[in-house]
Amino acid sequence: xxxxxxxxxxxxxxxxxxxxxxxxxxxxxxxxxxxxxxxxxxxxxxxxxxxxxxxxxxxxxxxxxxxxxxxxxxxxxxxxxxxxxxxxxxxxxxxxxxxxxxxxxxxxxxxxxxxxxxxxxxxxxxxxxxxxxxxxxxxxxxxxxxxxxxxxxxxxxxxxxxxxxxxxxxxxxxxxxxxxxxxxxxxxxxxxxxxxxxxxxxxxxxxxxxxxxxxxxxxxxxxxxxxxxxxxxxxxxxxxxxxxxxxxxxxxxxxxxxxxxxxxxxxxxxxxxxxxxxxxxxxxxxxxxxxxxxxxxxxxxxxxxxxxxxxxxxxxxxxxxxxxxxxxxxxxxxxxxxxxxxxxxxxxxxxxxxxxxxxxxxxxxxxxxxxxxxxxxxxxxxxx
Length: 384
Known about the structure:
Blueprint: H1 25-60, H2 82-93, H3 96-100, H4 107-140, H5 149-171, H6 183-207, H7 211-217, H8 223-248, H9 282-285, H10 287-312, H11 318-343, H12 348-373
């Protein structure tokens, strides 16, 4: 006669014990896909940062109007013969920039600025191909994490819009008496690039953790700190747009003094417009007023960032406190770098460093906001 069994014992055929189901099987199946998608996004992240820097170089070297046509496909092939170069140069010679500013330029000088703009556009094509190949590959192999197809498709859609905005920006400098692109169009172009970069960073942070973990830790979110971080993100984005306006009209070289602008706090002739027009245009076209606005916004961003960091010190999560601390450090460094850039009349190297600093601050703010929304729970000492 068989012995008595405990009511807690699982019985199977032949008296064998039945293995209990283990949790997390769905997550286990998706873990590899999340990691692979994150690597793909990391490649896109690096390429977008490079695109921002190359775009800055293109602007600072006055190369952006060297290619006067938008040919998304055939434009990938550069001039291959002397006749091709002469044809491209002839198109540039018909532009206002050449006729009003660069009429002394020869073919060798034209080739130098042409390669910068060609490289900028080529990098955009590479980003599009990397996105398309990755997105299609994850769909075909069915390794796309659940719920992510729409978000990742949106990245590609924004990339396509960015290409169209880029041409819209360039076209503004090819007619009339314009020798540069319209600064407000440049601001929109750069702002969209930062928005795409911010989304990639947010997605990478989310994919670095399991979906179940994100749902669990969100219960411990600091709603007030998340709101403050959202305000900081918006303010940082506005400052990026103002920086683009500065770059668009070379306003960084207008007043190489600090803390005053020239001999006064407010720039002289701040609302003067050489060709007239409503006073509101001075906020986009007057170098002194544009630089002044950028300076004041920088001070406000720094002050608000330190305030948010001070509030974040009360967070129960060390990773959250550290993320906001990094934001404060980078903001101080960025303001200091901006002052040095102004004092040296915005040379190429310092201008690019300042732009890279803006990227670092932007990504740090996105990361801190993510930490406030999805805290990283500190492990108790002694736990595995």
